[in-house]
């Protein structure tokens, strides 16, 4: 019987369980966006995950959307990430890096005054945290078609850098209202031409990025994360079920390591079942994410609805989450006040089970 603790293959990698760690932005990389020893400790503590998917990481310099998030575009950052991958591997874990472009979620105060870019000149209707406090998002500059090959090339170089840094694979961030997701969904993509209008055109940039990074890694070490229902960052699509089904059918031929799906909308602006049509059209490894308990994850995996589940906040607060789920131990409560602070508190100081109680 397939269970949460059944080993299986995701692309080129064999993992020991189906409890994955979702990418979680934690803002511990400092003003120069450098991975560091504190981050290495944090990820190594969570090495019992079937797979760690490290936090959203800038593929291209000058696209900060969170302040103090990491990058992978400089030699110093590659060196910093080597600390992380070495620590995770020494603890017996496996780790992918999530490559990311913030798109219109970037802000001039985080990027030396540079205006953010997006598929269309539509601002996010919210505020962003900056060194000067909360500020409204600004109207982005609409990207020209002739600029898009440079973005694809930036992702490809970031893929090379992640390979050099010792990761086991990469995940492309196509979710949560950042650049690739902005192109995918028609609420944020109002352009005409080769990258706007039809789903096929809106997906073109994401597919070009997947092809570019797969030429570095091989597609069996590349994953993609999508969120067709999520309204985070003022996102919406006129037909998320159709978008989901089309993407699933298209991606089925890419032989990726996995497709990672945020199944709902935490803000409840949109609802529906997107996992069923995705599962119908996608024969590869499917990872579900958002709001799962251990019990629901076990049921859905046993029923074949998904192959693994990525846990976010519960992994943040429980470094030994697989052991806690397996033994039925209570979970630590997360402290939201420390999600995006800059030190060890609420980051590496969550307690673990007594070793005698661990699986």
Q: How does this model look, in words?
A:
The protein is α/β, with parallel strands linked by helices and 359 residues long. It has a single domain (8-357), classed as TIM Barrel (Alpha-Beta Barrel), CATH 3.20.20. Helix content is 30%, strand content 16%. The chain has 11 helices and 14 strands. The strands form 4 sheets. The protein has an 8-stranded parallel sheet. It has a two-stranded antiparallel sheet with strand order 1-2. It starts with 7 loop residues before the first strand and ends in a 32-residue tail after the last helix.
Q: Could you provide a short overview of the structure?
A:
By secondary structure, this protein is α/β, with parallel strands linked by helices.
Please tag this protein with its features.
14 strands; TIM Barrel; globular; two-stranded antiparallel sheet; 359 residues; 8-stranded parallel β-sheet; alpha/beta
């Amino acid at each position: 019987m397939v269970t949460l603790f059944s080993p299986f293959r995701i692309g080129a990698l064999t993992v020991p369980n189906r409890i994955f760690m979702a990418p979680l932005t934690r803002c511990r990389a400092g003003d120069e966006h450098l991975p560091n020893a504190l981050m290495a400790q944090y990820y190594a503590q969570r090495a019992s995950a079937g797979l760690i998917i490290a936090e959203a990481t800038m593929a291209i310099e000058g696209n900060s959307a969170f302040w103090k998030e990491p990058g992978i575009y400089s030699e110093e950052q590659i060196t910093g990430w080597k600390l992380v991958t070495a620590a995770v591997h020494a603890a017996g874990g496996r780790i992918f890096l999530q490559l990311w472009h913030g798109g219109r979620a970037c802000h001039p105060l985080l990027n030396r005054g540079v205006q953010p870019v997006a598929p269309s000149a539509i601002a996010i209707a919210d505020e962003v945290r900056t060194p000067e406090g909360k500020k409204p998002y600004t109207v982005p500059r609409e990207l020209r078609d002739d600029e898009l090959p440079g973005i694809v090339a930036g992702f490809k170089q970031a893929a090379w850098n992640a390979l050099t840094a010792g990761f086991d694979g990469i995940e492309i961030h196509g979710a949560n209202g950042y650049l690739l997701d902005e192109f995918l969904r028609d609420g944020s993509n109002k352009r005409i031409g080769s990258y706007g209008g039809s789903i096929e055109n809106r997906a073109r940039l994401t597919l070009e990025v997947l092809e570019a990074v797969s030429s570095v890694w091989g597609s069996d070490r590349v994953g993609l994360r999508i969120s067709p229902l999520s309204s985070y960052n003022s996102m919406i699509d006129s037909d998320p079920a159709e978008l989901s089904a089309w993407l699933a059918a298209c991606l089925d031929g890419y032989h990726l390591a996995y497709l990672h799906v945020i199944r709902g909308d935490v803000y409840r602006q949109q609802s529906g079942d997107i996992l069923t049509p995705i599962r119908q059209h996608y024969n590869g490894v499917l990872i579900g994410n958002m709001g799962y308990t251990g019990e629901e994850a076990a049921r859905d995996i046993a029923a074949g609805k998904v192959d693994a589940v990525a846990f976010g906040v519960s992994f943040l607060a429980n470094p030994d989450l697989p052991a806690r789920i397996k033994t039925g131990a209570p979970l630590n409560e997360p402290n939201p006040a420390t999600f995006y602070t800059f030190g060890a508190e609420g980051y590496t100081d969550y307690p673990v089970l007594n070793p005698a109680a661990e699986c």
